[in-house]
Please model this.
Amino acid sequence: MGQYKSGIYETSVKGNHGPINVRTTFSDEAILEVQVFDHGETAGLTAPVFQRIPQAIVAQQSLNIDAISGATVTSEGIIAAVTLAVEEAGGDVEALKNKDQASNDKLEECLSTDILVVGSGGAGLAAAISAYEHGAKNILVLEKLGTIGGSTGLSGGGIAAPGTKFQREAGIEDTKVSWMSLWKERQASSNPEGLYPNYEVVDKFMDEAIITTEWLHDYAGHAYRQIYGFGVDPVRRLHDPIEQKDGATLGQSLIQNLVKFLEDHHIELRTETAVKELIWEDGQLVGALAEGPEAALTIRAKKVILASGGFAKNEEMLQQYVPQAAGTSFTSMATPGATGDGILMALDAGATLYEEPWIIGLGITSYLQHPVMQSLMMDWSKVYVNQIGERFMNEQSHYAIAANQLLDQDATWLLLDSAEQNQALVEALETLLPSDQAVKAETIEALAEAMNVPPITLSQTMQQYNEGAEAGQDAFGKDAEFLAPVRQSPFYAIKMYPLTMGTFGGVKTDEAMRVLKADGSSIENLYAVGETANKVLYNQVYMSGSAVQFALTSGRLSGEHAAKHL
Ligand SMILES: Cc1cc2nc3c(=O)[nH]c(=O)nc-3n(C[C@H](O)[C@H](O)[C@H](O)COP(=O)(O)OP(=O)(O)OC[C@H]3O[C@@H](n4cnc5c(N)ncnc54)[C@H](O)[C@@H]3O)c2cc1C
Model:
C-alpha cells in the first residue's frame, strides 16, 4: 500500500483576510501538486508566497518548510491547508513535519550589473524605472522579504503634488505656496528649534513632485482614479492610484503598476534576497554581497542605490537614535523589512547621518487585540488624559501630531463611557477585561483609582470636559461635532501608545541622492533614497502623501543620475 490515497483534495484554512483554499494532488507515493486556488490575502503583494511555499512542499515532500518573511501568516496558512489534505489522504503528518530541512549549504553565485537597487519599495522601483529610461539596461533589484513593495505597498499610495496637469484637468487650483504654508505650519507644531526641514530642499522637492506625478503616469504606466484632500489637509492634491482588475487599490495598486513596468522591460527583481554588505576595492565601491534563498551572491555593480526604507522595525536603532520612541517598533505598521539595513551599510561606508531623526506618526494604538480597537487610531470624539489625570492635547489633531503628543507623555489613557455610540467598543472591552491595558469602574473616581491616577484631578478634568462638551466649547479647541460628554457609567479607560508607520532620518545626500560624508563630499557610486534618506524634508511631522512621493521622486532622481554616469 502507498503512503497516500491518491486523488485531489481541497482544504481551507483561515488567512489574514478570509479563507485560503488549497488544492493538493497526491499519487500513491507523493505530493504531486499544491495549488492555492482562492484566497483573500493582500492582492499582489503576497504573490511570491503562492509559488514558493507550494513549490517547496512538493520539492522537499515535507511540511517542515520555513515561512516566507513578510508573509508569515499566509505561508503558515498554506502549510496548514496542505497538512489537512495530508490527513485526509491518510498520510503521516508527523513524519512530514519532522522531516529534516533541505541542506542549508548554499551555492555561490556571482552576478554583474550596472545598477544594483537595494529594496523593492516605491523608491527602489522608481529608481530602477528611471535608470532604464535614461539608458541603463542592466539593472538588478533585490528585495529581502518574500513580498514586494515594502511600506509603500502597505501605504495609502496617494502621492501629493501641488499643481499637476491632473489637478488642472479636474479644475483644482493648487500652488506650491499653499502646500508650503501648510508644511511650515505643521512642522512648527513641535521641536521649534529643530534643524530641519531644509526649506530650499522642500521647495525643490515640490517642483520635482509635479514631474514625478506626471512621469509615473506618462512613462511608467501608473494611473490615478481621483485626486483628493485628506481630512485636515483640505486641498485636493493627493493623487490616488486606480483600482486594479484584481481589486488591488492604494499602495498595492501603485506597486503593481511599477512591478509591471519592470516585468514588461525585463528588469530583474529577486525577492528573499537580502543585501548584507557593500564591497570595496582600493576604496572604490564595486558591488555588494547578498543572501538569496538558494545562493550567497557576490554582485559586481557600477552603482548601488540604497532604497531599503527606514528603521521603524529595528528596536535597537530606535533606542539609539530616537529613544523617545523606544518600544514603538513592536506595534509599528511599517514593513517588517524596515530594519535600517541601508542606513547601517551607508554608515559603514563613511556616510554621515541626518541629525534629529524621528518617527513618522500614524496615530495612536492600543495593545488590546481586537479589531474594533483599530477604530481608536484616530477617533477624535474620545478624551485622552495622562498619568496625572490631565488632558494634554486637542484630540482632533493630525494623526502624525497625535503620535508625537503621546511620545511626550509618561502614559496616556483614552476614556469612554457606556453611551450608545460606544457600544461596539464596550462589548469588545468586556471580552478583554481584566487586562493590564484597560480598566472599568462605576464612577470616575473609582476609574482613577484603577488607573493609578489622582482621583481629584481626573474628576476635575472630566467635569471641565463635560461642561465644555455640553456648551459646545472645548478648552483645547476641539470642534463641537467631536464633543460628547462622558457621563454614563460604567466608565472605561484604555492605555494608548504612539503608532508609527516609518522613520524620518537616514543618510545625508546631495540633490542627485548621492550619499555624503561628514566633510560634504559624496561617496562615489553610492545613492540613498526614500526613507533611507528622508529627514531633510521634515522636522517631526509627516505631511500626507509626501512620504510615498519622496520615495518615488528621490528614486527617480537617483536612477537618472546613476544611468547617466555609468
Ligand atoms: C501602513 C502605512 C501607511 C502609510 N501611508 C502613507 C500614505 O498614505 N502616504 C504617504 O506618503 N506615506 C505613507 N506611508 C509612509 C510611506 O509608505 C513610506 O515612507 C515610503 O513608502 C517608504 O518608501 P521606501 O521605498 O523608502 O521604503 P519601503 O517602501 O519600505 O521599501 C523598502 C524595501 O527595502 C527592503 N529591504 C530592506 N532591507 C533590505 C536589504 N538588506 N536587502 C534588500 N531589501 C531590503 C524592505 O524589505 C522593503 O521592501 C505609510 C506607511 C505605512 C507603513
